[in-house]
Amino acid sequence: xxRFAKWFWSLVIGGPLAIFIVWAISENPRLFFVTLLNGLTxxxxxxxxxxxxxxxxxxxxxxxxxxxxxxxxGAYSGWVVGDATGSWLLAVATGFATAAVLGLLMQVxxxxxxxxxxxxxTLVTIGLSIxxxxxxxxxxxxxxxxxxxxxWIYGSTVLPVVEKYPTYRxxxxxxxxxxxxxxxxxxARTRVGAMIRAGVDDRGMxxxxxxxxxxxxxxxxAIGAGLAGLAGVVGGTALSIAPGEDTRYLLASLMVVIVGGxxxxxxxxxxxxxxxxxxxxxxxxxxxxxxxxxFVIMVLxxxxxxxxxxxxxx
Amino acid sequence: MSAADWRRAMNTGAAARLPTRSLPTQPSVVVxxxxxxxxxxxxxxxxxxxLSVRHWVILVGVxxxxxxxxxxxxxxxxxxxxxxxxxxxxxxxxxxxxxxxxLAQMTVAGLAGYLVAIFGHSAATTISFNWPWGVAVLFALAxxxxxxxxxxxxxxxxxxxxxxxxxxxxxxxxxxFAQQNYTLFNGHQGFNQVFPPSVxxxxxxxxxxxxYLALACALLGYFFVKHLVRTPFGVALQGIRDNPRxxxxxxxxxxxxxxxxxxxxxxxxxxxxxxxxxxxxxxSPGSMGLGVMINILVIAVLGGIKHPIGAxxxxxxxxxxxxxxxxxxxxxxxxxxxxxxxxxxVLFSPDGLLGLWAMVRSRFGPxxxxxxxxxxx
Lengths: 314, 377
Known about the structure:
The structure holds 2 protein chains of 2 kinds.
Chain A: H1 3-27, H2 29-60, H3 67-85, H4 88-110, H5 118-140, E1 156-159, E2 163-166, H6 167-189, H7 191-201, H8 203-208, H9 213-238, H10 245-260, H11 265-285, H12 290-304
Chain B: H1 3-12, H2 39-50, H3 53-68, H4 71-97, H5 105-119, H6 133-155, H7 161-180, E1 191-192, E2 198-199, E3 202-203, H8 207-228, H9 232-242, H10 244-250, H11 254-280, E4 282-283, H12 290-303, H13 308-328, H14 334-348, H15 352-364
Antiparallel strand pairs in B: 1-4, 2-3
Helix pairs in contact in B: 4-8, 4-11, 4-12, 4-13, 5-6, 5-7, 5-11, 6-11, 8-11, 9-10, 9-11, 12-13, 12-15
């Protein structure tokens, strides 16, 4: 893109945005900053879910449409354990573990034999998501389940402009930052991470260099699924768990990954920020059609930059 | 050396003194393509060549079906399967012959249904335009095809899984829009009392007339698709499915072919959508929600995504399971049943039920000397 084109588009998009921000802050500063914080916490939740999704796609070209079901499964299993033991941290760990184990089984038992058949893998994940969603509906019913976070993150903190804000949501933000850093460290500073990045770039060469590709795949799928399960417990505490949540988070991670770029964790972060903020600001300032905004963003991104912001050519 | 010199050199050498096989001076006549025979005879020869016993059995069966089945089976099973099959047929055309899996077919169908309700008669008298049914259906189909073309234009730059995702996003976006908009789409409740018309003496609200209407549309759509894939456009589309770069290098406008395929599939889906709306006598956002969009994909894959008849086979199985899940498992566990069947089919027979049937036939039937695995019937 030429320099002129860059300036032009920055003005076309940035101009109205800047005007809107100035107007919103002058009109009702508290609403603006609360919405901003809500958007950031929602974005952090979306980032945790989408990071797993994008890793699985980037490495294995497998669009796991059962990712939302893994989220819900982690949430329900974490709830069962949390209810039995009373420990929220144990619930989080269980959520991660259950989803990771299921993801591992899915990769080793099913997807391993369909390497290269992208459409077939996607159809299998669709079938799995239908079956999992119905089984969970059968077992847990249609009621809403809620978590009790531990007392030290319960309540609200006092912040400059917004006065009071739920502490838990700030914790979500910090947790996702921690997970983002952990993922960066895993990908950039460990051998396994180097293998994963190499596999995202060129799977054939990775296998040719003598790496046990199936092991790397299984590990990546387990991590990706585990992240979804962890997000299930974390998100279930902030919002709540109900049967429709799996499709909601699946659509959210799809949108985040499409806008941000498949296979890129940084892209997932950028996409999550865009989608989370757009969703919350849309809800707050344009309640009737706000929910359509995020889809419009995704459609525009796919139409004009199909690879995503940080995506690389497939 | 010019071509003439070369030919002369070849023809005066040693090879020219060998006895040559004399080629027939007339092109050989292919059986049945006697150009001098009248058109009807040529058509009859074509039918005799192409159709076998099972085609006739199915055709006769489907025509006399209402007279041997109860009204429930005619309407709830037969007509619904035909209408859903038509929508799934549009997906088969796009995915099986065009290589583009679009989840937005049900969206196009739902939009057509909404437009029929808006332009025609419904219970929402403040919104409906109350145009005569012919005009309403015509405008609904036209606008739905325009929408499908727009979807195609947006999706054509994507490939494979990205197409699934963008069409999914468009579909869900329209679902939310229809749910939130009250001035035109009547929001959450949608439109009720959207009845099929009465033409002369025939009231299409009855099970048997509606079945024949759905059958006519389904047969037209089916034969249209079977014809289309043998036309130059259809063959080019299959070429684009197999190797877009080569087709582009050959000079075909890949984008235009794909968008045109979306438009044609949109027409099929729109007709199916109007039929489904008339079948249910209502249209609401839930009729084109995520679940139904996935159901159409399930139907198309269940039957076999590379064959037009697969869409209808899948629709029949789907509708039968939907109505009789109560006898198999519990009534609420329909999703589990259909999801399980879908999973089994995709894991063990990627070509759907028709693939299973072909496998069984090749295992137990007479071994044909020429088996071409890549032939698409």
